Amino acid sequence: MNLYPLLRPLLFSLDPETAHEVTLKLLNAAHASGLSKLIYPAIEDKPVRLMGLEFKNPVGLAAGLDKNGDYLDSLAALGFGFVEIGTVTPRPQPGNPKPRLFRLPEHQAIINRMGFNNHGIDHLLAQVKQSRYTGILGINIGKNFDTPIENAVDDYLIGLRKAYSSASYVTINISSPNTKNLRQLQQGDEIKSLISALKEEQLKLQQEHGKYVPLVLKIAPDLTTDEINHIAKLLLEFEIDGVIATNTTIARDMIAGHPLAHEMGGLSGAPVKDKSTAVVRELTAELNGRCPIIAAGGILSAADAQEKIAAGASLVQIYSGLIYKGPQLVEDIVKSL
């Protein structure tokens, strides 16, 4: 029973951030009352084994929708093969001033400059502990906005240490355009020293906890070919377990002339699809199957997901597609793959 086409005009009449909160509260209410089982049919399992983990199906929820883990159970009920929550920082922070979220329905796109607004990692872990979700859980970690970029590694180490025991895998987000200077961590020596420190810590935590939790790096769609190749070499050198391609884009040529094109922030949805897929293809060529790729960016249909898989991805993640197409998109993609 696909109710989303009926609900969407109402939700789109609200301010985007308000609509986001209302939607999540409605999902929670539907889940708590048992309605979600009636509304969303069970999606057949299509298991994928990757990074030593068994994914129920290849379609995941991308980070950003549930930054604090407050809606984990109700989002999981939509049939995702895995759920990624965050981005979360060591300390709570309010994010950027509002308005900071914009819809571009003509382009099936979203611009956001949220700025890692979250209640801090301790809150997120408390929510995870209370949830009943037993599937694959990614925890996406970032740095606080007021941590100097030269000390960024300290924040990522705090995040990794705290998330390790609760996460199925941990994602290192160094590609959001909405935290000042964050993206420079993807370049040159900065990325090498960050990856090196996190890998060393991961191996220490493996000994301490008696289990291995994969590390995944999330990168931007705006990197040059040389930068992608440099990152690919480091992924292999330090045996990083996976890479998510990609985050949102700062490019605007795809929406030139739109009244909101000047708004600062990351652009997601349909306009980022080709850029993201190009990064997946480039990584596939460089990694040669030695480090799995999770594709995100512009997946609004089953065909879009198939294109990412054909480009070399093993799993896909959706976010903007869920806003524009609703939960039916999850089932459509799983059936098609």
Helix content: 25-40%
Predict the CATH topology. Answer: TIM Barrel
Please state the structural category: alpha/beta
What's the β-strand tally? Answer: 13
Count of runs of 4 or more consecutive helical residues: 12
* CATH level-four homologous superfamily name: Aldolase class I
Count of all domains: 1
Percentage of residues in strands: 15-25%
Along the chain, the helix and strand elements come as: HHHEEEHEEEHEHEHEHEEHEHEHH
Average per-residue pLDDT, rounded, comes to 97
CATH domain class: Alpha Beta
CATH architecture: Alpha-Beta Barrel
Radius of gyration: 18 Å
> What best-fitting shape do the alpha-carbon axes yield?
globular
Question: How would you sum up the major sheet?
Answer: 8 strands, parallel, barrel
Unreliable segments of 5+ consecutive residues: none
Q: Taking strands numbered 1, 2, ... along the chain, how are they ordered across the largest sheet?
A: 3-4-7-8-9-10-12-13
Distance between the termini: 21 Å
Structural commentary:
By secondary structure, the protein is an alpha/beta fold. The protein has one domain: TIM Barrel (Alpha-Beta Barrel). It is built from twelve helices and 13 strands. The protein has helices spanning 4-12, 16-32, 35-39, 72-76, 121-130, 152-163, 188-209, 225-237, 273-287, 302-311, 320-325, 328-336, and strands spanning 48-50, 53-55, 59-61, 82-88, 101-104, 109-112, 136-141, 169-173, 215-219, 242-245, 266-269, 293-296, 315-318. The strands form three sheets. An eight-stranded parallel beta barrel has the order 3-4-7-8-9-10-12-13, surrounded by five helices. The protein has a three-stranded antiparallel sheet with strand order 5-6-11. The protein is globular, with a radius of gyration of 18 Å.
